[in-house]
Amino acid sequence: MSRTLVLLVVIPAALYLALCAALFVFQRTLIYYPQPRAVGSAETLLTLPVDDVQVQVSIRPHRGPKALIYFGGNAEDVSRNLPGFSQAFPEHALYLMHYRGYGGSSGSPSEEAIARDAMALFDKVYAEHPQIAVVGRSLGSGVAVRLASVRPAQKLLLITPYNSLEELAVRQFRWLPVQWLLQDKYESWRYAEHIAVPTKLIAAGLDEVIPPSSTQRLLSHFPAGVATLQVIAGTGHNSISESPEYLRLLEDGL
């Protein structure tokens, strides 16, 4: 084999391996986009110590048995939901978790760390509010369904949910061995099989991020009769919450 031919083989292979290595090392910067907290004051903020980090939670306190715990998207400042949720859910105490690295929370986000934080928050809320609705949007739908599979949530609402993050990543990076490189896979389907509480999936009719087939596959993994799917026509992945139907469907799910 000539030197030129060797170089034609070795150089592309080396570049491909370097690209795989870069994706492995920096993958979480492609998944998580931490946002600062824009809404609220000391009275609307709870600091939750978990492990060695301080997780910030935007809250609207309310006496009574009902609470709503919300997990947002990968580039969402969940505090922005506080005014609208406060009006839409007047009988619920509200807890909107800022992932590690988001909204003043310390630490760095990862699937396992967020799962631990979610369970710690649920346990704290459950001590005062035994009727908890768990709500997750986009990335947060994976957090929410996993939490509801191991904690006694009363209702589960998933907004623009996916079957698994790995499935979406494989679709986006077809030419890379994503299934071997990805650390945070968010396999929602795996946890859906263990859900027994009433569950509503809310999809965007024109979602440009989550294909309808991914949401449908997730729906198929819930036990029969547990989950329903509703689609808000004419909305995109990020614009779904601007629809007048959005909060109404959430209210109906509670």
From TrEMBL:
Residue stretches in coiled coil: none
Query: What keywords would UniProt list here?
Result: Hydrolase
- Superkingdom is Bacteria
Q: Does the keyword GTP-binding apply?
A: no
SUPFAM superfamilies reported in the protein's UniProt record: alpha/beta-Hydrolases (SSF53474)
UniProt GO molecular function: hydrolase activity
Does Hydrolase show up as a keyword for this record?
Answer: yes
| InterPro entries for this protein | AB_hydrolase_fold
PANTHER family assigned to the protein according to its UniProt record, in alphabetical order:
ALPHA/BETA HYDROLASE DOMAIN-CONTAINING PROTEIN, PROTEIN ABHD13
| The protein's name in its UniProt record | Alpha/beta hydrolase
Q: What is the lineage of its organism?
A: Bacteria, Pseudomonadati, Pseudomonadota, Gammaproteobacteria, Pseudomonadales
